[in-house]
Amino acid sequence: MKKIFWLGVGITIGVVAARKIAGAKGALGPAGINRAVGRASDSLHDFAGAVVAGMGERETELRRALGLDTDHEVGSRQSRRRH
């Protein structure tokens, strides 16, 4: 009974190791590197977009708080930035 148990454990470890090795080969190849770079690029682009949007909102809040802009000027300035 012990031999059957250890045989099952060995087969399971072998299958898991084979899958890990196959996955690692895919990640190390050109396609895997392209996927990783693409994901990093997308994340960086999303982060930069969020920072720019936050900066615009904060600038608008500060200008209104200081009385530098009226509502009409704020809208026209923001529409100019988008174009």
Q: Which key phrases capture this entry?
A:
mainly alpha, elongated, 3 helices
Description:
With 83 residues, this protein is an all-alpha fold. The chain is built from three helices and no strands. The chain has one domain. Helices cover 92% and strands 0% of the residues. It is elongated and about 85 Å long.
Architecture blueprint of SSEs:
Blueprint: H1 2-28, H2 30-66, H3 71-82
Total of domains: 1
What is the alpha-carbon Rg in Å?
A: 28 Å
| Multimerization status | single chain
Q: How far do the termini sit from each other? A: 75 Å
**Biggest beta-sheet profile:** none
| SS summary, helix count | 3
What fraction of residues sit in β-strands? under 5%
Mean pLDDT: 83
Number of strands: 0
Structural class: mainly alpha
Task: Give the % helix.
Answer: over 70%
Q: Can you write the helix and strand succession as a string?
A: HHH
Dominant shape: elongated
Uncertain residue ranges:
none
Provide a quick synopsis of the model.
The protein has 83 residues and is mainly α. Helix content is 92%, strand content 0%.
